[in-house]
């Protein structure tokens, strides 16, 4: 009879929990479906690989080794415990039930015991990381929900061991310390209480466990733990192709009234999964150059705020409650969105841009992709920020004044300063001794050298161009420049949200390239490099694209140039975002530097994938940085810790930022700033 | 409220001027809205957003000026009036007469313009229009607020600030600092394509022959002489001073 009552009680609790869980998950799926349909390329195998590496391999998590190990333990023990759960449930109705594995059951028992114990250890360690060690990124959002996870998982795991321990007393089994070490120890400790008390305690802890399991199940979709459900799908559905490549807008479509994203449901469904996949681990914000230097933008908060907004708005649109059971979760301080949700139908929704996310946040992003590179669940922050910028720029015409001026200067003179476009080639006057033909001055050329706006007009960047020309002359390369026919690449305009201007420039440039029969393009600008290489192809460009460092290394290997002269410098090498994180070119610049006699490379603490942005990307070069510390100063300080004699870089924007940074620190006399091309040139000729 | 903005299309400020047969060559030149007129357009847009208004843009010039009107319409103006005039011999006197004739009795409450055009730099037309129409004018304003029929404007007077109160209708010209002109949105550009531009030939406007005759004449146009490289004097201070005095006398001929 008691067993029957127990069974009915269990079914009731489980049924209710499963009902709530499916309801909550289904609501969130409906919210995601409010988004626009995403065009997914059918590369299923590649997607499966991504899942294997990042979900089952937990690769990104190990960027923080301690937390990575903790999470790996939680992840794998979770599956073992699920299997154990089935046996544990049946034990509640069939006294002493075991999976029918015969003598082999002891191995299952061993596995389950250790999995449970390790999970408990991982939970305690996780608690310590957050509340004892106070790891900075885990303090970004401190709420009841985070604490609840540790408490629930702590009870969940210890109640398994206690249930199994008291079961042994109930059944008067001799504890086997070899194969059931933890529950065995509990059974030994309490062996004196007798079988009746053991039975009572068995059922008490059995129920404690079951209630914790089901409470946690209901809790998961309503908290950051939703990542347990959504992260895998997020990684599977992730945008394929080159990282950071932006979505093309079709301007031919005259039906469109909104360019970019002005309301949450204008994101694609794939983008919306990101929000529920977020585990609030703070790794993104921890690395964000804007956050680090005290600006309002925090990639994690960006995602979290948009997630809460989606939940709130989705609930209003679909008339579904996202918080259940509402008397507990809905009214408690656990759910900040709950109160707003109740009034959602009567009150107007906050605006996505302005109320949920401020313009100040949107114009602080350097598009460096450090956040995306860190994210264990594969979230893409940058394309969302750019979608929001697109709305501001193209639909609203609202942006910082510097951005307006930038666009006008590009439109009129095709360079950021608005300098007369007929002066683009003027830099050549400085190099009488060099061979720099324009495309009209030669019959044939192998490489089109894209000088870029920085290289053409900026005094300091012109020096990089001169050095690279000298190198090409020495290597006997047949190249030509476009001269005054060269336009802006449009990359910065695109990153600033002006897709319309980008496409105009892109199409003009491609027509130009095609008319000249350009097959290979080389540039000193990683931003132009990235957009030519990965983004122009969508508009019809078919050409090989090189960054100057790639070719310099090639020519050194081919023996076309031999850096022989000693360059006695200790060089702190700064990776640019668009060559590094965007194009995975980390080794080539280092190999070049290593090949120069006398050069000692110093690695800044944040290097390669983790290298911090100089502060110029995403159009921030042209927008006054008023909030917090200057990013370039922070980056230069990181380099100065190594006491270098020089800071080396591979991008004209980075070089400007580094050199301004050394000036701000008043060390420009002691610490030179140079591009790799200039350093190589020193080794060839001086 | 009815607002009129006077607008001139000029060379982009970065264009290099070249002469052909004694006249300014317009070949391959990038044209923009005169930057000061752009402030005037923006101010009209702000007043429209704040108080509600119908904004008309007016220009005098050849057919190429239509693109400047489209830009102003894309910024949010409602309609445009273009006085087609191809003769380059018109001076400020004639043009202001043409404008006054075109807008007289149309009931504009406020007329805005730039305080000068970056090409000719004369700064006369808007002021002349106000004089002809007999309405008050405030030149080079940096702030404007309107409550009912009363307006308060601040104007830049050589580094000082003057606050002026005036009643509608009046004319004001915009100085830098009045606002930051907006960037036209894409929907704005699309809508501008469908907004009306009324075109009138200058000859069709009813003004007397006297009002049609220029009061000034351009005798010659030439480019400024190329900047010579500077000369750095060296040697003893006494020697440098005497050399400087001698050069000022013989070479520069200023003393």
Q: What would your notes on this structure say?
A:
- The complex is a heterodimer of chains A (686) and B (255).
- Chain A is mainly alpha-helical and 686 residues long.
- Chain A folds into four domains: 2-236, Fumarate Reductase Cytochrome B subunit; 264-396, Orthogonal Bundle (Fumarate Reductase Iron-sulfur Protein, Chain B, domain 2), CATH 1.10.1060; 401-557, Rossmann fold, CATH 3.40.50; 569-685, Rossmann fold.
- Helices cover 53% and strands 5% of the residues of chain A.
- Chain A contains 28 helices and eight strands.
- Chain A has helices at residues 2-33, 44-56, 65-91, 105-132, 144-170, 181-189, 194-219, 227-236, 269-277, 283-287, 289-292, 299-318, 326-330, 336-342, 359-362, 370-374, 382-396, 401-413, 452-457, 459-475, 491-495, 499-516, 526-535, 548-557, 587-595, 631-640, 652-664, 676-685; strands at 447-450, 479-481, 520-523, 544-547, 569-573, 599-603, 646-649, 672-675.
- In chain A, the strands form two sheets. A four-stranded parallel sheet of chain A has the order 2-1-3-4. In chain A, strands 6-5-7-8 form a four-stranded parallel sheet, with helices on both faces.
- In chain A, α25 (587-595) links the parallel β5 and β6 (599-603).
- The longest helix of chain A is centred in the first third of the chain and has 32 residues, at 2-33.
- Chain A starts with a helix and ends with a helix.
- Mean pLDDT of chain A is 93; it is low at 338-346.
- Chain B has 255 residues and is an alpha/beta fold.
- Chain B has one domain (2-212): Rossmann fold.
- Helix content of chain B is 29%, strand content 28%.
- Chain B contains seven helices and 13 strands.
- Chain B has helices spanning 35-51, 66-75, 92-103, 125-133, 186-194, 209-212, 237-250, and strands spanning 2-7, 9-11, 19-20, 23-24, 31-33, 54-61, 79-84, 110-114, 137-147, 150-157, 160-167, 170-174, 197-201.
- In chain B, β3 (19-20) and β4 form a beta hairpin.
- The model of chain B has no long low-confidence stretch (mean pLDDT 92).
- At the A-B interface, α17 and α18 of A face α5 of B.
- Chain B: Residues 21-209 form the Electron transfer flavoprotein alpha/beta-subunit N-terminal domain.
- Chain B: Belongs to the ETF beta-subunit/FixA family.
- Chain B: This is Electron transfer flavoprotein subunit beta.
- Chain B: InterPro entries: ETF_a/b_N, ETF_b, ETF_beta_N, Rossmann-like_a/b/a_fold.
- Chain B: Keywords: Electron transport, Transport.
């Amino acid at each position: 009879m008691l067993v029957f009552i127990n069974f009915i009680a269990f079914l009731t609790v489980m049924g209710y929990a499963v009902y709530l869980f499916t309801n909550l998950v289904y609501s969130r799926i409906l919210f995601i479906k409010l988004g626009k349909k995403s065009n997914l390329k059918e590369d299923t195998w590649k997607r499966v690989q991504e899942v294997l590496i990042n979900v089952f391999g937990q690769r990104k998590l190990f960027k923080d080794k301690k937390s990575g190990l903790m999470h790996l333990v939680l992840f794998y023990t979770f599956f073992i415990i699920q299997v154990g759960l089935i046996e544990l449930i049946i034990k509640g109705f069939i006294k002493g039930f075991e999976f029918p594995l015969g003598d082999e059951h002891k191995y299952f028992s061993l596995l389950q015991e250790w999995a449970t114990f390790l999970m408990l250890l991982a939970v305690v360690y996780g608690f310590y990381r957050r509340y004892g060690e106070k790891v900075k990124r885990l303090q970004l959002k401190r709420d009841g929900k985070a604490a609840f996870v540790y408490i629930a998982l702590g009870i969940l795991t210890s109640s398994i061991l206690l249930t199994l321990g008291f079961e042994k007393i109930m059944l008067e089994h001799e504890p086997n310390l070899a194969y059931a070490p933890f529950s065995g120890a509990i059974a030994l400790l309490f062996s004196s209480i007798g079988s009746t008390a053991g039975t009572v305690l068995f059922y008490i802890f059995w129920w404690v466990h079951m209630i914790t399991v089901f409470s946690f199940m209901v809790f998961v979709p309503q908290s950051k733990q939703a990542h347990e459900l959504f992260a895998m799908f997020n990684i599977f559905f992730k945008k394929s192709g080159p990282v950071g490549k932006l979505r093309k807008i079709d301007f031919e479509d005259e039906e469109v009234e909104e360019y970019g994203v002005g309301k949450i449901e204008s994101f694609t469904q794939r983008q919306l999964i990101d929000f529920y996949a977020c585990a609030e681990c703070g790794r993104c914000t921890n690395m964000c150059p804007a956050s680090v230097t005290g600006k309002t933008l925090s990639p994690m908060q960006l995602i979290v705020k948009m997630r809460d907004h989606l939940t709130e708005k989705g609930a209003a649109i679909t008339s579904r409650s996202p918080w259940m059971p509402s008397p507990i979760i809905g009214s408690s301080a656990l759910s900040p969105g709950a109160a707003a949700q109740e009034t959602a139908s009567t009150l107007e929704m906050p605006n996505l841009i302005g109320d949920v996310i401020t313009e100040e946040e949107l114009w602080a992003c350097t598009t460096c992709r450090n956040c995306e590179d860190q994210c264990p669940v594969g979230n893409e922050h940058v394309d969302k920020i750019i979608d929001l910028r697109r709305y501001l720029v193209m639909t609203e015409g609202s942006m910082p004044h510097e951005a307006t001026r930038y666009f006008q200067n590009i439109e009129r003179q095709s360079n950021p300063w608005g300098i007369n476009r007929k002066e683009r080639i003027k830099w050549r006057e400085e190099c009488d001794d060099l061979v720099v033909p324009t495309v009209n001055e030669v019959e044939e050329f192998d490489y089109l050298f894209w000088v870029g706006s920085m290289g053409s007009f900026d005094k300091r960047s012109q020096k990089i161009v001169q050095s690279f020309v000298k190198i090409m002359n020495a290597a006997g390369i047949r190249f030509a420049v476009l001269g005054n026919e060269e336009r802006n690449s449009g990359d910065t305009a695109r990153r600033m949200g002006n897709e319309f201007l980008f496409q105009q420039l892109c199409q003009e440039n491609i027509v130009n390239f095609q008319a000249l029969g350009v097959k290979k393009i080389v540039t000193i600008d990683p931003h132009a490099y990235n957009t030519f290489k990965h983004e122009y192809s969508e508009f019809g460009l078919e050409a090989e694209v090189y960054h100057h460092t790639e070719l310099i290394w090639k020519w050194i290997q081919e023996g076309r140039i031999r850096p022989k002269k000693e360059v006695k410098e200790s060089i702190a090498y700064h990776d640019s975002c668009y060559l590094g994180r965007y194009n995975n070119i980390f080794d080539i610049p280092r190999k070049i530097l290593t090949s120069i006699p006398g050069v000692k490379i110093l690695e800044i603490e944040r290097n390669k994938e983790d290298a911090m942005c100089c502060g110029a990307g995403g159009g921030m070069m042209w927008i006054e940085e008023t909030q917090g510390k200057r990013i370039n100063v922070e980056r230069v300080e990181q380099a100065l810790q190594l006491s270098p004699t020089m800071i080396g870089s591979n991008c004209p924007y980075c070089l400007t930022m580094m050199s301004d940074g050394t000036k701000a620190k008043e060390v420009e006399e002691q610490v030179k700033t140079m591009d790799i091309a200039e350093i190589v040139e020193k080794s060839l000729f001086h | 409220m009815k607002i009129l903005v006077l607008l001139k299309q000029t060379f982009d400020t970065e264009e290099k001027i070249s002469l052909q047969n004694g006249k300014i060559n317009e070949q391959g030149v990038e044209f923009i809205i005169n930057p000061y007129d752009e402030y005037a357009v923006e101010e009209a847009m702000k007043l429209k957003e704040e108080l509600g208004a119908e904004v008309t843009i007016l220009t005098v010039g050849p057919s190429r000026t239509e693109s400047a009107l489209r830009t102003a319409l894309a910024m949010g103006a409602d309609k445009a009036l273009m006085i087609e005039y191809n003769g380059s011999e018109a001076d400020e006197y004639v043009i202001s007469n043409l404008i006054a004739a075109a807008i007289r009795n149309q009931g504009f409450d406020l007329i805005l313009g730039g305080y000068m055009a970056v090409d000719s730099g004369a700064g006369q037309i808007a002021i002349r229009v106000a004089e002809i129409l007999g309405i008050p004018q405030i030149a080079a304003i940096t702030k404007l607020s309107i409550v009912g029929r009363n307006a308060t404007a601040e104007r830049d007077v050589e580094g000082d600030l003057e606050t002026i109160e005036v009643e509608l209708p009046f004319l004001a010209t915009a100085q830098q600092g009045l606002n930051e002109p907006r960037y036209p949105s894409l929907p704005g550009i699309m809508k501008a394509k469908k907004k009306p531009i009324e075109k009138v030939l200058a000859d069709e406007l009813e003004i007397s022959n006297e009002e049609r005759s220029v009061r000034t004449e351009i005798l010659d146009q030439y480019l400024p002489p190329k900047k010579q490289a500077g000369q750095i004097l060296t040697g003893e201070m006494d020697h440098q001073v005497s050399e400087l005095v001698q050069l000022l006398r013989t070479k520069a001929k200023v003393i």
